Description:
The structure holds 2 protein chains of 2 kinds.
Chain A: H1 4-11, H2 14-36, H3 68-74, H4 77-104, H5 106-120, H6 124-135, H7 139-166, H8 169-177, H9 181-217, H10 229-236, H11 245-272
Helix pairs in contact in A: 1-11, 2-11, 4-7, 4-9, 5-7, 6-7, 7-9, 8-9, 9-10, 9-11, 10-11
Chain B: E1 4-13, E2 19-28, E3 33-37, H1 44-50, E4 59-68, E5 71-72, H2 78-88, E6 89-92, H3 96-99, H4 106-115, H5 122-135, H6 154-166, E7 172-176, H7 184-201, E8 204-209, H8 212-218, E9 221-226, E10 229-235, H9 236-241, H10 246-253, E11 301-302, E12 308-309, E13 336-347, H11 352-356, E14 363-374, E15 378-382, H12 389-397, E16 404-409, E17 412-413, H13 423-428, E18 429-432, H14 436-439, H15 446-458, H16 462-475, H17 492-505, E19 510-514, H18 522-539, E20 542-547, H19 550-556, E21 559-564, E22 567-573, H20 574-579, H21 584-592, H22 632-636, E23 642-645, E24 648-650
Parallel strand pairs in B: 3-8, 3-9, 6-7, 7-8, 15-20, 15-21, 18-19, 19-20
Antiparallel strand pairs in B: 1-2, 1-4, 4-5, 9-10, 10-12, 11-12, 13-14, 13-16, 16-17, 21-22, 22-24, 23-24
Helix pairs in contact in B: 4-5, 4-6, 6-7, 15-16, 15-17, 16-17, 17-18
Amino acid sequence: MSGAPILRAVLSQPSGAIGITLVVGHVMLAVLSPLVLPHDPIAQSADLMLQMPSLSHPFGTDRLGRDILSRVMLGGREAMLIATLATLVAMVWGTVVGIFLALIGGRIDTYIMRIVDALSSIPGILIVMIFVAALGVGATALIPILGCSYGLSVVYIARAAALDFVARDFVLAAQARGEARATILIREILPNVRDTLAVQGAMQWSWLMLGITSLSFLGLGVAPPTPDWGLMIADARGVMPTAPWAVLWPMAMLSTLIVGVNLATDSFAKALGVDRQMGVRAA
Amino acid sequence: MTLLDVQELTISQVGSDAAIVRAATLALEPGETLGIAGESGCGKSTLLLALMGVVKPGLAVTGGHVHLMGQHLGSIAPEAMRRLRGQSIAWVPQSAAMALTPTMRVGAQLAEAMSVHDTIPPGDITARTTALFAQVRLPEPNQIGARYPHELSGGQMQRVVIAMALACAPKLLLLDEPTTGLDVTTQAEILDLLGELRRDTGMAMVCVSHDIGVLARLTARVAVMYAGRIVEDRPTAALLTRPAHPYARALLASVPQIENPGMPPSIPGSPPAPGMSTPGCAFAPRCSRAHAACDLVPALSPLPLGGRVACHSPENGIFAPVVMPTPLVAQEAGVPVVTVRDLVVQYRRASLFARLSRRSRPDSVVAGVSLTLLKGEILGLVGESGSGKSTIVRAIAGLWPRSAGTITLDGANLPARATERDRAALRRVQVVFQNPDASLNPRHTVREILAQPLRLYFNASPAEVEDHARSLTAAVRLDPDHLDRRPAQLSGGERQRVALARAFAAEPDVILCDEVTSALDVSVQASVLALIRDLCQSRGTSCLFVAHDIAVVAALCDRVAVIYLGQIVEIGRTTDVFLRPQHPYTEALLSAIPEPDPMKTMQPVLINGEMPSMTDPPAGCRFSTRCRHVRDVCRTSTPALALRSAEHFTACHFEGITGI
């Protein structure tokens, strides 16, 4: 199954339809929002500090009198861009290393996997914080750092999915023909683990989104005054009792995006026959 | 009273009108034995399950009924149904290894089967399990219950499953392919056991099998199914000698026979997909006798000589198998292509205990094999599972490193691993694997599959690939529009043809065929064998053909080597080896094959016990533990291959010992 039939299968499930709607809505908002902004998102105003939602500022204003609607509309853009690029980095290196290890097996596989185990036991956010502290804040630094650290889990998934196929006779047949290892990896195994990895990629993206937002919340991610959901939550958490809208709107945006990605991924996994928990083909 | 009465039973897929079983009508008297024969997808297993009121999920009974001892299955309350099953029917599933729980001792599993329907005083359980284990003739019946399934051999597991079925003394025993997956000698023993149990207990039996030879040994009556319908239902002897339905006749004809070496004819075309509805007789498109009347579904009507057949123009002549005699290949004066000298292949068991105790002795799966593959010939390699025959193929292909010995291709040494061989050597030796489901990448189209060797060995341009792919599909008798399909869209036989086309795309000098027909139905098998023969002959390719099915080897091969526990025990021309076997093992193998010949179903099997473990092979002659002619010298000294007659070598201390 591929293309249109899959999309139809996804949309026919209520969770899939909701998930796709949320994701598509968020993506359209992120792409189109600069064209339809009601206010300048970084214009401060002492007169408008912490205003309740009103007709001119439907989502209210923050501590510095900035329009929250305009800020939440833009607040996912930078994080989503970083998440997308970091996902690509993580998927590419994780997949190549994972399938390669599955293919060669033996001692090299064992040793490298133990190193991966060791690295995985360090909390990812800690690694990232250390590198950010050393290399400085900013998207250009974040992408390789996040890509490397999140790629560790891709190694596991890609290796497990590929192990399902390396012992199959078609791989043996390719080895008997004398095909190069890279050819076997790309032509024989990759097409069979593609679905599993696509589902994994979508999950990676949502984890990266949460990770970047957390970093911004901690002041290590997106730099002010760029509107960002994590920064907005950090900024407004002191005034939560008096102006809850300043926290709630960015939270709602982030939650709907993450929930949407998860629902959509679940439905895609079901339609593709991928077991999301195991990361390997169910049937 | 009739034990089982099936009337117009139709079982369809839920939510569609695809019928898996169509209007099946059958009756079974107490103590009767009935075989259900047919190729995969004909609905025979579905019908068997329905006989005990079970329908697989996704299927439903949409017409007709099954009466068991006068009770209508399906209208009985579940609890009563359970009791009825426990008291009267037992089912032996296809795979014993899958049917047993790996974490439970087999004695406990048997006790569980007994106590489901009976309350047995705890003190009696051991006695009853021991009695049952003894009844199925397991060794040491009072101790074997303490073992786990993995500590038993395949044949022993099958015996345990049969014991579980016998636990409640059923009146009807249902068997689903009871010997599929077992070695031929083990199969013969299980068939003997089932025959004896039936005589002792007087229970009725229904046995499903794709192998008519198995049914000929086991049952007095056989129903042949095709596309969900029973097409012929006859006493076994009558079916085997005078099959009335053209399908039954063609099916019998396609079974290769040892006495009659040569290519059996195949049935043209392929059966309709399960559930596919066909107007009229489903076999008509493949039938040589089809005429206008076949547009109507023929009713299953009685034959004058007994039995029933569903055909508008049944045949009534005596069945005589016709084979195409295989012309001896012009073996260019015996020029060797591949020479294997003293090959030893070892597997080292990597158990932690063995490593710690430093006693890890590697098991020699192939223990000193020498053979020569001549130019243009097809050499068969027969043996039971674990004999090392597939390992020899892997060693020649460079997929498993050899521990000792040499392999040469046209006199030049072949390195042990494929990765160490140059491209020309790789191209000249091609492998075809057992199961085309596994050996073809499910994500590739046939075009991509065929393009791989063309690009790798000949740097073919896209236009050349297209050209060659088309001529290759034609050579294996596939349509050019198959090029765009993926393996899942092909039938089993078509897939194996693609695998053959891929091997021949490299224009090899040698192809190694590892059990290439064992996953195929007989009617398809015959056409694949014919194809291998044609391709090898027309291109002068030599072929090493590994199989456990002796009849297939007899049909195809010019010469044959019989292998036992990693050593060749007999090698020679096919007719010499199979018609005048010189080694007791070859003789035993031949005696164990169930053949669809009513005259030959009663001969005894000339072998004892089970195959010894490769870890601890017997000293002296490796066959000495099972040989019925064994003498003292056999247990101490290993016999070498000795010339007995022209090109016929045997590794036995005694000449002319067979046939006694």
